[in-house]
Write a structure and sequence with these properties.
Number of strands: 0
Strand content: under 5%
Shape: globular
Distance between the termini: 21 Å
Order of helices and strands: HHHH
Helix content: 55-70%
Structural class: mainly alpha
Length: about 80
């Protein structure tokens, strides 16, 4: 059974909460699609891989510098 903490709906909620840029959202969706394909081809957990791909840059708009990205995003995820 898939982990509900790693659901696509939960990932998309994080994206829409933290990402306003349409181009960054499109980037996240493109990476998600590619990574889901890689997971499927490799027999891996497509939901888990898709979740990670979809949120991989969700903190970038607020924290674009090397000192904070992706570390602030990790803190946000840990807090959940």
């Amino acid at each position: 059974m898939a982990d509900p903490m790693l659901s696509r709906d939960r990932a998309w909620a994080l994206v829409t909460e933290h990402v306003q840029s349409e181009s960054l959202r499109k980037h996240l969706l493109g990476v998600e699609a590619a990574v889901r394909g890689y997971a499927r081809a490799s027999g891996e957990d497509e939901e888990a891989w898709g979740f990670v791909a979809l949120v991989h840059d969700f903190d970038y708009e607020k924290f674009p510098d090397r000192e904070n990205h992706p570390y602030r995003g990790v803190e946000i995820l840990r807090g959940l």
